[in-house]
Structures are given as structure tokens and as C-alpha cells.
């Protein structure tokens, strides 16, 4: 629980009385590698704190093809914010890529504390703002950077992650095939070009 409070306080400090209400809502969950925190179609709305491990968020189309949207590396907040807010069934999957340890809470119960504890609402708002910035940055990467530049940026954003997950997950995240990723890695190993910064 100490890691969760430290994570939240880094967003915005919380009062002791707020933490006393928040802490009991989060219960420990062990997710073995390959298991799901969220599955598409799910209606139960949980928010989680990834205390240990790596997870991915991905879509699966009607043909069964999977597209990785993002990765979560502990410490991180997990859960589909849009489906928690709208009440619609989840459209995305969140799956453990390694054995994971999560603290999970019912989102409605957590949200019910906002009016009484504005410091908690402020933490939630700042996390939502951070997610919005990351989403917009990701959209810019897809449009403005080529595959090699996206790969180099991935290495900066997720150092050491390639050693923990299969390469096809990395390729899916980059929007390329595993064969294309192998070519990029070979090119870079021979001293290929550097990363161009994104315009902001």
C-alpha cells in the first residue's frame, strides 16, 4: 500500500483522513502471466494499481488480429478510464505479460469519495490529464514518425521492456510486422539513423 500512496501523492498530496478512506478500497490481486485484468465486453468497473509486473492494453478485431495500444510497467494505474466513466462495456483488453501484482478497487466506490475528499478528486484529475497528454503524444508519433523513429522512441519510453516481452508485442505496438521490426533492429545495430524529435 505504501507504493500506491507514494504514487498518488506524487500526483498531488493527500490528507491522512483521505488515505484512511481510500486504502481499504484497494484489495490485492495476483495476475499470473497471460491472465486478464479487463476483457472486452466486461461491465464490472475496476481501477487498479500495478505494483509489480508488465501489462498490455490491446484491441482484437473480428478476425482475431490483436493491436497493442500501450504497455503498463509498474508502478502504474490500470483500467479503462473511458468505460469506467461512460458505463459502457469495455472495448479494450488489459492482460498481464508477466506475473503481476495489482491492488484493485471498485471505481464507483472510489469516485463516491470525490465530493467529500477534493484532494482525491484532484489526484484523479491530474492522472487523467497525464493520460490525455500521453494519448495525444502517441497519436502524433503514429502520424509524424516513421517505423524506425517510433521504435527508437519506444526504447526510450520503455527501457528494458524488450527483454521481458516477445518481439511480436513490440511490433504490434509500433504498427509493423515482426519481420519489419527485425529489419529495423538489424539496421540500427549497424549504426542506423537517429531519432527525430516530435514537434510540439
UniProtKB/TrEMBL annotation:
**InterPro entries found in the cross-reference section:** cNMP-bd_dom, cNMP-bd_dom_sf, RmlC-like_jellyroll
List the PROSITE patterns hit by this protein, alphabetically: CNMP_BINDING_3
Q: Which domain of life is it from?
A: Bacteria
Q: Which Pfam families match?
A: cNMP_binding
Q: What is this protein called?
A: Crp/Fnr family transcriptional regulator
Amino acid at each position: 500500500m505504501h507504493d500506491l500512496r507514494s504514487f498518488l501523492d506524487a500526483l498531488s498530496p493527500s490528507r491522512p483522513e483521505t488515505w484512511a478512506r481510500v486504502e481499504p478500497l484497494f484489495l490485492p490481486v495476483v495476475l499470473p502471466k497471460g491472465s486478464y485484468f479487463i476483457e472486452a465486453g466486461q461491465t464490472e468497473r475496476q481501477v487498479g494499481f500495478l505494483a509489480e509486473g508488465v501489462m498490455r492494453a490491446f484491441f482484437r478485431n473480428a478476425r482475431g488480429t490483436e493491436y497493442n495500444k500501450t504497455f503498463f510497467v509498474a508502478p502504474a494505474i490500470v483500467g479503462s478510464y473511458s468505460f469506467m466513466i461512460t458505463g459502457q462495456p469495455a472495448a479494450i483488453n488489459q492482460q498481464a505479460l508477466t506475473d503481476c501484482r495489482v491492488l484493485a478497487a471498485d471505481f464507483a466506490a472510489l469516485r463516491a469519495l470525490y465530493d467529500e475528499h477534493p484532494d482525491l478528486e484532484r489526484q484523479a484529475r491530474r492522472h487523467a490529464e497525464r493520460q490525455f497528454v500521453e494519448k495525444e503524444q502517441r497519436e502524433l508519433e503514429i502520424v509524424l514518425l516513421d517505423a524506425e523513429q517510433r521504435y527508437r522512441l519506444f526504447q526510450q519510453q520503455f527501457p528494458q521492456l524488450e527483454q521481458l516481452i516477445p518481439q511480436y508485442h513490440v511490433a504490434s505496438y509500433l504498427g509493423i510486422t515482426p519481420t519489419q521490426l527485425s529489419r529495423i533492429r538489424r539496421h540500427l545495430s549497424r549504426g542506423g539513423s537517429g531519432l527525430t524529435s516530435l514537434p510540439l
